[in-house]
Amino acid sequence: MDFGQLLLDRGLVSPQELEEALADQRRAIVEGREPVPRLGEILVTRGCLTERQVAEALESQDKEILWCPKCDVQVNVEVRPDAAGYRCGQCQADLVKPRGPRGVRVVDTSVILVAREPVPEEVQHASKDPARKFGKYVLLEEVGRGGAAIVHRAWDAYLNQFVALKFIKPPPGGHATETRVIDLLKEARSAIRMRHPNIVTIYDVGRIDRQFYIAMDCLDGRTLQQHIHEAHDAGRVSPLYAEPRRYVAILRDVARAAHYAHTRQAPIVHCDLKPSNVFIDAHWRPFILDFGLAMHGPAHETDRGTVRGTPSYMAPEQAAGESPSIDARTDVYGLGTVLYELLTGRPPFEGELLEILRQIVYEAPRRPSEVVRTLPPGSRSADAALWPALERICLKAMQKERAARWATAKEMADEFERLLKGDAARIGSGQHVKVGATPRRQPAVLAAVAETKRPTTGALVRGAVVAEAWLGVARRHWRGFLGALAGGVGLLFVIVMMQRPLPQASTAEDRVRGQLEELQRRVDLQTASLQLEQAKRAYSEAASIVPLDQRRWLEDAGEDVDWLLLLRGHLIDAINRPTRWSPSLFRLRTRELRDAEVLRATPEKLVLFHEGRAAEVPWSAVEPETVIKMITALLVGPGTGSQTDRVGLGIYCAKNGFVDQARSHFQALRGSELDIVARRYLARLSRPDSKH
Hints:
The structure is a single chain. This protein is of the alpha+beta class. The chain has five domains: 3-111, no CATH class; 121-217, Phosphorylase Kinase, domain 1, CATH 3.30.200; 221-426, Transferase(Phosphotransferase), domain 1 (Orthogonal Bundle); 444-501; 510-686, no CATH class. It has 24 helices and 20 strands. It has a six-stranded antiparallel beta sheet. A three-stranded antiparallel beta sheet has the order 11-13-14. A hairpin with a 2-residue loop joins strand 19 and strand 20. Helix 11 packs across helix 16 (457-476).
């Protein structure tokens, strides 16, 4: 529970006293004071609490204040049952309880946990490699890569726990790098202090040498987007209909977590709530991920024209670049888009970038009940009353005008709670949800002309609306309105030319382009390491935003994944036969295993027998040359395998940089039944823009 809420629940402080103390803390954050005073320290200074009351409240949260006699600093420590003791992160001296009254002023320094349990074996092995040490962290494996960051599963040697270590890749250039670092520090000051059961915990943010990093919870589970994709793979619209109450509870908890972020000392608006940023662990506990786009505190007029978020899930104020209008209701809209995709199996708006932005600003989404006209197979009839209520919640959250949405995410969470308590009939009762209502209903041409004075993405959206308006008229009356068409095109040209010198106007396109490049890299990386289910999901995400001029890459990527899925399936079947493959040297990306036997395989991993015991190894951890040898020995060697496996092997070789081997495999298929396929891949390898 939040410390301030705990004090209120115990009656130790009044709401006014708490708000005044929080205001003091906000001022300290804005002024950049370090360390930022703790809430308990402020309340003691104000005379609202005694030091003993603060200590008792902390103890109830499994926290205590310890003291370093050598550095003479006090540290706020989270008490863990696996700890034998704690040491100072600066001098490594033992931390002890303060001797006598020392006040409650705490200096935020790192703590070293002295663990009762031994360090895991994989950590012991990895720590012997100097290249895998990064400060207090031991890098174990890369788990994700994008345009702005690389994420590793790592071991925190101070806290004795696994973490997800996110390396920030600042853009080149002095000012751009400085801006990114400032954003990182803002995220550190706010997000690192957030402690909520449904927000991924950030433990540390910093820099070693020139590398900036964020350390956060290492979670075991899947994103809500993965849940949806798995339902699609099984032929279902969405996982919601099979287990509605479970997913409604997830939405309720996510809404409560968003409200917590909105009401912090320095309020945080996420700005990018979507299914891929909702993580569900193995115990069905949801977490909000990625506050990297978050806005800290109120926006200013200088932010106007800056577009934040993912296009298909943006609120109208985001799509129009109206940053000063972004507040908690922006995240309410984001929660509505998450619910919409759970109800329909797809985002509320799809298409090319400008078309998506135009729809967000001017068009209401189709009602979920129109997209899914009949309840999908597997829906529970007992929950039939939920669907109209969920639709009402969804459409209210996604109203174009901010004032028509819930003012807080808590109000939306309360609606989900009523549903779970069986009060579906009262959800949205008496509320007239105007599905077709849209703001800025002035004629499209006038709207576009009015916007040409301001360099925002909204101007480009309205420029697209101009073209649509003129073209619509011309289609209906083409003989009489050819002049209107020419005039419309001319006006659109003028608008575009007026926007051209202003770099802010392309902010949304640049963001989508960067997101697409990140997805493209992710698809290539996951395809090359046989993480094909993840590659398919990244491919599907890319398909929703890829522009027409990059459709060829999308088609190529989809074909690659399909061939490799077929190859991997055949390889798994071959490995799981009674005869075992036992190479003299089995190479992993991090080490070599001599005289290892491959016992069995699944789509996720291999099971090896080495030095008297079995070990599980993900496909992504195997050196590509070893995979090629395995495929050659079991599937496409002399007198074995099929032509389809040779196609997959050629693709795998190309993806991992063995271009000459790839060519030889495709050349071997010339004149066969797969001659057309081989020719197509040979042509791809010869293309200047080929990424193989």
